[in-house]
Amino acid sequence: MRPVNAPSSTQNATRQSVEHYENFPVASWLCPPRLRPPIAAIYHFARTADDLADEGDVTFAQRLDDLAAYRADLAAIVAGRAPSTRWPQVFGPLAREMTAFSLPHQLLADLLDAFTQDVHKTQNRQGYADRTELLAYCQRSAAPIGRLLLHLYGVADGRSLQQSDAICNALQLINFWQDLSLDLPRGRYYLPADARLRHGVSDATLLAREQTPEATRLIAEQVAWARELMQSGTPLVHAVPGRAGWELRLVVQGGLRILDKIEAMHFATLRARPRIGAWDAPLMLARAFAM
After folding, report:
1. Is 32 left (phi over 0), alpha (psi -120 to 50) or beta?
2. Which residues contact 181 (CB under 8 A, 6 or more apart)?
3. Is 191 left (phi over 0), alpha (psi -120 to 50) or beta?
4. Which fold has domain 130-291?
5. What CA–CA distances, in Å, run from 75 to 35, 51, 111, 148?
6. Are 53 and 116 in contact (CB under 8 A)?
7. Cα 96 to Cα 100: distance, rounded to the nearest angstrom
8. CA end-to-end span of the chain
């Protein structure tokens, strides 16, 4: 995910929401003007932390040190103290918006827990034992964003929170199954170990990115799981008010469209990464209206 400028047309709004669907939508013209600053502050907080954990040619130890310093700055603004001067473009706006909108700071801390876990997992080339463990990670790496956005829109009932978690966690899973060809060479193992064992897919097969029949069945199973999880959360689009509900529709349809593309390529994401293109926008808009 990368910061984007506010779109100037419906097509751009659709394209940009889809390109960044993996974790959360960014502020756009579909967002009420008064909520653009807090959404942008949340986005830049998460984007910068993700970069610390993932981008650049630095050691794992340095990544962990940077995340610890980042966490200390979050704790500082939560306590009403001045943060360090390392990330003024992040913590200055975030401190203002946390005060203005009473943002739940534990959700922001959860994101840092997930990023830190990702560094440890990648460093040790560790995977996830089963779906329960993988979902527990998603609950800290993806679900907090949805809950923060619902907080801004004044949606706080338990059912909506559960549906938001389902959508965000599904989007995270979709990103995993979309990016297998990129993640595996970098030491990221998101395919659950018990499912790999059940389908007879070895670590060597994954590292070699061999699209064997067993690997294809394994990925197909995970894609079906992600689709089911997404569909369980889609009623939320009717609970989120106004234009935000329409942006959520586009985000949901972006995730589902990626699943369509994975299926169309016969689940061969060990070899290639499917992408959304401008030509997908009309179909996604139609499906969004149909919701």
Report:
1. beta
2. 209, 269, 270, 271, 272, 273
3. beta
4. Farnesyl Diphosphate Synthase (1.10.600)
5. 23, 19, 13, 18
6. yes
7. 6
8. 26
Do 28 and 13 meet the contact criterion of CB atoms below 8 Å apart? yes
Contact 46, 91 (CB under 8 A): no
Question: CB count, 10 Å around CB of 49?
Answer: 23
Q: For residue 28, what pLDDT is reported?
A: 53
Alpha helices in the chain (DSSP H): 10-19, 36-54, 60-78, 88-101, 105-123, 131-141, 143-152, 158-178, 180-183, 193-199, 203-207, 213-233, 242-264, 281-290
Helices (H), ranges, 179-238: 180-183, 193-199, 203-207, 213-233
Phi-psi region of 256 (alpha: psi -120 to 50; beta: other; left: phi over 0): alpha
What's the distance, CA 254 to chain centroid? 12
Q: Per-residue b/e over 86-107, b at no fewer than 16 CB within 10 Å?
A: ebeebbebbbebbeebebeeeb
Q: Which amino acid is at 79?
A: A
Residues in the chain, total: 291
Query: Which residues in the chain are classed under CATH 1.10.600.10?
Result: 130-291
Using CA atoms, how far apart are residues 116 and 98, in angstroms rounded to an integer? 23
Looking at residue 227, what is its pLDDT?
98
Whole-angstrom distance, CA of residue 76 vs CA of residue 84: 9
CB 109 within 8 A of CB 45: no
Integer Cα distance of 121 and 177 in angstroms: 17
Residues of the chain with pLDDT under 50: 1-27
What is the sign, positive or negative, of the torsion defined by CA atoms of 121, 127, 132, 138? positive
Closest to 270 (Cα-Cα) out of 227, 230, 220: 220
